[in-house]
TrEMBL record:
Pfam families: GIY-YIG (PF01541)
Annotated ranges, domain GIY-YIG: 10-85
Annotated PANTHER family: UPF0213 PROTEIN YHBQ
InterPro entries, A to Z: GIY-YIG_endonuc, GIY-YIG_endonuc_sf, UPF0213_domain
Protein family membership: Belongs to the UPF0213 family.
Protein name (Swiss-Prot/TrEMBL): GIY-YIG nuclease family protein
Source organism of the structure: Ramlibacter algicola
């Protein structure tokens, strides 16, 4: 019975992938490594089925899904040149 509660306490990660063609893909997951392989095997997002990922460029932990989703929206709104710097910023703001 404690399983759902323990699952709810797990953090979410915002991640940035470099994909074929040099394009970036951003998403959130509880386990970035597992999600990377889902993208690689074609069971992730439609975007990464067309442009398979090459590597994880960056990832940042968030305490919950809501915070991770808000950060994902902020990241996706940035120009490509600023996306990596987003992860090195000190504040999660």
């Amino acid at each position: 019975m404690d399983e759902p509660r323990a699952q709810a306490d797990l953090p979410y990660w915002l991640y940035l992938l470099e994909c074929e063609g040099g394009v970036y893909y951003a998403g959130i997951a509880r386990d970035v490594e597992q999600r990377f392989f889902q993208h690689l095997w074609g069971t992730g997002a439609k975007f990464t089925r067309a442009r398979p990922p090459l590597r994880v460029l960056a990832a940042r932990e968030y305490p919950n899904k809501g915070d991770a989703l808000r950060a994902e929206l902020r990241l996706k709104a940035l120009p490509r040149a600023d996306k990596l710097a987003f992860f090195s910023a000190v504040a999660h703001g």
